[in-house]
């Protein structure tokens, strides 16, 4: 059952446009706050998702960040040169490369985490606790649906579209 109309998606209230603009604004705000830490938001995300175990190899990192394999290699090279990330080559198959965060990378994450949390808290300051919980819950549900749709399309299933 469709809940949005074409008109809804062609205005300032377009969900896609709002999500895109929110991501851009948050990234810009965080980049400014990260300046003293000499790390970019993309580098921070890479370190965080690897350290948290959500990502374990360069291919997964490329998909997570929605960047090319070449850009991923450059990102990992930079983090490795700075001593923040390590490539972990499989002893049995040298083509298999894992990623690990170094002790220095872990320290960088710990230094930046309060900056990120403070940024988000400033952004959601006008929301009450229930609204914050509801917002997080809705984002999580949207993500689950989007990931399921992508998996179904990848497996060859037809996903219903709205006309």
TrEMBL record:
Pfam families named among the record's database cross-references: MarR
Annotated Gene3D superfamilies: Winged helix-like DNA-binding domain superfamily/Winged helix DNA-binding domain
PANTHER family (UniProt xref): HTH-TYPE TRANSCRIPTIONAL REPRESSOR YETL (PTHR33164:SF43), TRANSCRIPTIONAL REGULATOR, MARR FAMILY (PTHR33164)
Matches recorded under InterPro entries: HTH_MarR-typ, MarR/SlyA-like, WH-like_DNA-bd_sf, WH_DNA-bd_sf
A GO MF term: DNA-binding transcription factor activity
BP GO annotations: response to stress
Gene source species: Sphingomonas panacis
Protein name: MarR family transcriptional regulator
Residue ranges of every copy of the HTH marR-type domain listed in the record: 12-144
């Amino acid at each position: 059952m469709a809940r949005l109309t074409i008109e809804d998606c062609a205005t300032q209230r377009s969900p896609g446009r709002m999500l895109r603009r929110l991501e851009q604004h948050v990234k810009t705000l965080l980049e400014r706050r990260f300046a003293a830490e000499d790390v970019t938001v993309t580098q921070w995300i890479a370190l965080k998702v690897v350290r948290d175990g959500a990502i374990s190899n360069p291919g997964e990192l490329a998909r997570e960040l929605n960047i090319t394999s070449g850009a991923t290699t450059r990102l990992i090279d930079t983090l490795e040169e700075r001593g923040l990330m390590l490539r972990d080559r499989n002893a049995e198959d040298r083509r298999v490369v894992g990623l690990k965060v170094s002790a220095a990378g872990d320290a960088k994450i710990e230094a930046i985490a309060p900056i990120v949390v403070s940024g988000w808290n400033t952004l959601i300051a006008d929301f009450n606790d229930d609204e914050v919980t509801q917002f997080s819950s809705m984002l999580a549900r949207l993500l689950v649906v989007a990931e399921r749709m992508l998996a179904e399309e990848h497996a060859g299933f037809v996903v219903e579209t709205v006309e």
